[in-house]
Amino acid sequence: MNKENKTLSDVLYPPVVTAHINKTMEDYFKWRVNNKNEVQMHYSSQPNGHPHLGTMTSVMTAFAIGNFLQESFHIPAHLAFEQLENAPGYKIKKNDVTYQLMLCDTPLENSTKLDVYMKSFKGLMNRLSKKSGIEYKILSYKDFQETPFVRESLIEILNREKRIRAAFKSQRNEIKGKVSLQGMQIHGRGCKNLKCRRRSKRLRQAEHGML
């Protein structure tokens, strides 16, 4: 066929966007699911309020995907809800330094913000779990921080502070951290006066707390 006789219907367009590549929903996942015994999905959230419509929609989507994978590939699927209880629940500024309480330490209704809001999240997930047949478990940020890999990674960041700062090119050219004050649950966000000294290859002691 010469150029003069070509029509729009004869033009071959290259595949664009994944919709032109995948034929079925299974195609989106099978490259990761094939030859696996189970599927574990992760959903992270800062429970700093009761679930709103957007949060409920995304949580429902996670359970729906789990149900789809379980039925399509005939292997069990589970959901790990990563609870970020370290999110700020209360802030106060003093002498140009911002301090904050984490959600798990901020009082609310004779309890904490974490407990009050997670009760709503658990109620939502219990209903979705029953409806979809997908079991879930809650992973706290505290448990995550206590794993050896995370501890060792934190030490590596401290040891390579200059390289990390250069890589991220932060506006203020500094790495920020949050350290609990001994005997208190309030955290300093600025870390202007934070000092670390070497105690061993696996441990650093901060001036006002342990890292």
In short, what is this structure?
The chain has 211 residues and is of the alpha+beta class. The protein folds into two domains: 116 residues, HUPs (Rossmann fold, 3-Layer(aba) Sandwich); 64 residues, no CATH class.
SSE pattern: HEHEEEEEHEHHHEEEEE
Distance between the termini: 72 Å
Q: Assess the beta-strand content as a share of residues.
A: 25-35%
Residue-averaged pLDDT? 80
The CATH superfamily of the largest domain turns out to be HUPs
Portion in helices:
25-40%
Which structural category fits the helices and strands? alpha+beta
User: What's the domain count?
Assistant: 2
- Continuous helix count: 6
Number of strands: 12
Radius of gyration: 24 Å
Low-confidence stretches: 196-211
Strand order of the largest sheet: 3-4-9-8
CATH topology of the largest domain: Rossmann fold
CATH architecture of the largest domain: 3-Layer(aba) Sandwich
User: What is the CATH domain class of the largest domain?
Assistant: Alpha Beta
- Report the principal-axis shape: extended
Largest sheet: 4 strands, antiparallel
Q: What does this protein structure show overall?
A:
This protein has 211 residues and is of the alpha+beta class. It has two domains: 13-88 and 107-146, Rossmann fold; 148-211, no CATH class. The protein is 33% helix and 25% strand. The protein has helices spanning 30-33, 53-73, 113-132, 141-145, 148-159, 161-168; strands spanning 39-45, 77-83, 88-94, 97-102, 107-108, 111-112, 135-140, 179-180, 186-188, 196-200, 203-206, 209-210. A four-stranded antiparallel β-sheet has the order 3-4-9-8, with no helix packed on it. It has a three-stranded parallel β-sheet with strand order 1-2-7. A three-stranded antiparallel β-sheet has the order 10-11-12, with no helix packed on it. The radius of gyration is 24 Å and the shape is extended. The termini are far apart. Residues 196-211 have low confidence and may be disordered.
